[in-house]
Amino acid sequence: MTTLTGKRVLVTAGAGGIGRAITTAFAAAGAKVFACDIDEPALLRLQAEVPGVAISVCDIADRASVERMVAEAAAALGGLDVLINNAGIAGPVASVADVDPDAWETVLRVNLTGTFMVTQRAIPHLKQSGLGTILVMSSLAGRFGYPDRSPYATTKWGLIGFTKTLSRELGPSGIRVNAILPGAVEGPRIQQVLAGRAAASGRSVLEEEAAALANQSIKRFVDPAEIAALAVFLASDAGRSISGQMIPIDGDSQSAS
Ligand SMILES: NC(=O)c1ccc[n+]([C@@H]2O[C@H](COP(=O)([O-])OP(=O)(O)OC[C@H]3O[C@@H](n4cnc5c(N)ncnc54)[C@H](O)[C@@H]3O)[C@@H](O)[C@H]2O)c1
Predict the structure, then answer these.
(1) Of 52, 106, 171, 224, which has the most beta carbons under 10 Å away?
(2) CA dist., res. 221 & res. 154, Å (int)
């Protein structure tokens, strides 16, 4: 198993879904993990189930909350070696013609501006590490057009530009920056997406699931534990020459819908 013994790791939205799998995998690999999330009960459950994980309630769309949280994380961990920008919301299902401008702004505030704010605050700590790593959770929607999901796709493409720019800026400081682009992940979120598509198309959820898998060479959704294992690899010394890359983990998907 890849070890990350003693690495100091901050995971955003670490109490649920993919973030929870990442928090658990990094803790199992020997890292010291600090997980923030907007959902306090979920954080408390995480802490009970993964002993040693430090937690903090934080809405990454709120600048003051982010400033407080990153300072808390660096203090609790004694510095920072790895930042995992996992937090992101799915946003509305509507065509560009119909999307609610307030909903558009909410998605940008969480997915793009939130990621920017956490990263900006974390950079001084990562520079002190000497071997810092940043992972950014983009998506399949960050390499294909995604009908009826324009706010989400726009932010996930934006995060690719953010990743590539950061890699150029921070490489000379010994900090690597990569984006992970998961395809549809097993769990409640994909069921919500499929239900949204079914409501829009008039087809059943099962028909929507079959249509989603028809776009992939490997006919199953991704297990969050696989994404966590990729994150562990990229953060480890095995990935020390990998930076500025966008790494899909999506069963060889050929489209986002
Ligand atoms: N699930 C998928 O199919 C999929 C596919 C590709 C990419 N992604 C990306 O992976 C990341 C995690 O996705 P997920 O499916 O695990 O998400 P999720 O909807 O399961 O949520 C994970 C966590 O995010 C927290 N959260 C929500 N808003 C927050 C905020 N403003 N501040 C802090 N925490 C907040 C929630 O409380 C929850 O614990 C996201 O960036 C998402 O876009 C997911």
Answers:
(1) 224
(2) 23
Q: How far is the CA of 137 from the centre of ligand 1 (A)?
A: 9
Six-digit token string for 222: 């991704």
pLDDT tens-digit profile of 94-138?
Answer: 999 999 999 999 999 999 999 999 999 999 999 999 899 999 999
Question: Separation of 180 CA from ligand 1 center, angstroms?
Answer: 13
pTM of the entire structure?
0.96
The C-alpha R_g of the chain, in whole angstroms, comes to 18
Among 240, 179, 182, which residue's Cα sits nearest to residue 216? 182
Quick one: which atom of ligand 1 is closest to the CA of 137?
A: 41
Domain ranges of the chain: 8-183+223-249, 184-221
DSSP 185: B
Element (H, E) at 9: strand 8-12
- Cα–Cα–Cα angle for 169, 174, 180, nearest 5°? 70
CATH topology of domain 8-183+223-249: Rossmann fold (3.40.50)
152 catalytic? Reply is yes
Rounded Cα gap, residues 115 and 139, in angstroms: 14
Instruction: Name the token pair of 116.
Output: 């920017």
Name the band, by pLDDT with cuts 50, 70 and 90, for residue 196. Answer: confident
In this structure, is the dihedral angle defined by the CA atoms of residues 4, 13, 117 and 250, taken in order, positive or negative? positive
